């Protein structure tokens, strides 16, 4: 008897989710992207120009800085069951904007427990040294306590996921859709 796998289960199930991914109904398609657009999909696609979508291939940071680029990349990562990397990176970006000393420690703890700690529900793939440095940084949280871990995750996404995203059906379908609007 198979039991359904819940999202955000511990890391022991991550391998199983990956192996079962081929049985999933998720597909690397344009439709998956439109389902999570920040606006209504049709209106969003009318606003997105081919030039904007093409610029996402210029650099990973260009992609991350664009609202619809971020949504498309998130949709792609979901198909690979690795959206925790982007969610961690975004949580760190938000954390760096924290101005209240009172909120700093609690936000840092929440990020650490969700993404960094061993067996965290959405544990990111970082090396032992980075994990331990981040753990030590938690003793006196500052706006830079996640910098090394965030940098490692950014680099991992840029070198690994981003090139696959640019070759994905999500991205190529999106480009085709914006180009068809012009004809």
From TrEMBL:
Protein name: Regulator of G-protein signaling 8
Compartments in which it is found: Cell membrane; Cell projection, Dendrite; Nucleus; Perikaryon
Domain RGS: 59-175
First-listed, main subcellular location of the protein, grouped into a coarse class: membrane
Matches recorded under InterPro entries: RGS, RGS_RGS8, RGS_sf, RGS_subdom1/3, RGS_subdomain_2
UniProtKB keywords: Cell membrane, Cell projection, Membrane, Nucleus, Signal transduction inhibitor
Entry keyword Membrane: yes
Membrane topology: Peripheral membrane protein
Keyword Cytoplasm included in the entry's annotation: no
Cellular component GO terms held in the UniProt record: dendrite; nucleus; perikaryon; plasma membrane
Pfam families: RGS
GO BP field: negative regulation of signal transduction
Organism per entry: Centropus unirufus
């Amino acid at each position: 008897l198979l039991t359904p796998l819940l999202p955000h289960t511990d890391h022991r199930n991550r391998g199983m989710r990956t192996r079962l991914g081929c049985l999933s109904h998720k597909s690397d398609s344009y439709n998956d992207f439109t389902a999570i657009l920040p606006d209504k999909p049709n209106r969003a696609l009318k606003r997105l120009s081919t030039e904007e979508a093409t610029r996402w291939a210029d650099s990973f940071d260009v992609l991350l800085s664009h609202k619809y680029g971020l949504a498309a990349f998130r949709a792609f990562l979901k198909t690979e069951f690795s959206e925790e990397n982007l969610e961690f990176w975004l949580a760190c970006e938000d954390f760096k904007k924290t101005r209240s000393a009172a909120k700093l420690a609690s936000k840092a703890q929440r990020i650490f427990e969700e993404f960094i700690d061993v067996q965290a529900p959405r544990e990111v793939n970082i090396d032992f040294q980075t994990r331990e440095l981040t753990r030590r940084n938690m003793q006196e949280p500052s706006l830079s306590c996640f910098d090394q871990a965030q940098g490692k995750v950014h680099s991992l996404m840029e070198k690994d996921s981003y090139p696959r995203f640019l070759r994905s059906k999500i991205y190529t379908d999106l480009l085709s859709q914006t180009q068809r609007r012009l004809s």
